[in-house]
Amino acid sequence: SAVISQKPSRDICQRGTSLTIQCQVDSQVTMMFWYRQQPGQSLTLIATANQGSEATYESGFVIDKFPISRPNLTFSTLTVSNMSPEDSSIYLCSVEEMGGTGTSLYNEQFFGPGTRLTVL
Amino acid sequence: LAKTTQPISMDSYEGQEVNITCSHNNIATNDYITWYQQFPSQGPRFIIQGYKTKVTNEVASLFIPADRKSSTLSLPRVSLSDTAVYYCLVGDSRAGYKLIFGSGTRLLVRP
């Protein structure tokens, strides 16, 4: 199973600044995903990042606000730009791998530990 | 994408079997049903996935009736450490499957 690390684990930022979150995987993966989870809420998919192409953003999320880089098959970054207190959240990256054996195969996503962002 | 509906919360006691039912009336032919578990301050963790009938692994069973409009996650003999949020998701299990999380079910296991 993939092992994912994120940096920073947490940060407190001022309004109007930007923060770049790094996601590192211990194996090469095609698909990487970025999620946001606001306090006490479920996860919301921000975008899907494939290596060598532009990220695909979900409704309500735009590249200017959440630029994503995917320079290789083991690394991605998400930048939260021009932050406001409403951006305070946990940001998680995940990767997709095939699990199971034989005829019992399934796609499984592995999540990083998350980055807890507080914007003052 | 199919929408799922789960109970917001459930309570149980140690040693009991817990069944969490999820409804997904608009599930498509290519959709699989997947359950994830999330502990506080951690990312979700895959529990089980199935397409029809019954799937069992070392931690849970998944029961899916013939019409596939609902599914039930069964956790045998829960312990305090099973206290978590459980998410039911449906979607195409081919590569690039985007996970769309619903509200989940908060399970509290009491001693």
Q: What do these coordinates show?
A:
- The complex is a heterodimer of chains A (120) and B (111).
- Chain A is globular.
- Chain A is an all-beta fold and 120 residues long.
- Chain A has no helices and eleven strands.
- In chain A, 0% of the residues lie in helices and 57% in strands.
- In chain A, strand 7 and strand 8 form a beta hairpin.
- With 111 residues, chain B is mostly beta strands.
- In chain B, 0% of the residues lie in helices and 49% in strands.
- Chain B is globular, with a radius of gyration of 13 Å.
- Chains A and B meet through strand 5, strand 9 and strand 10 of A and strand 4 of B.
Write out key terms for the chains shown.
heterodimer, A: 120 residues, mainly beta, seven-stranded mixed beta sheet, four-stranded antiparallel beta sheet, 0% helix, 57% strand, globular, B: 111 residues, five-stranded mixed beta sheet, 9 strands
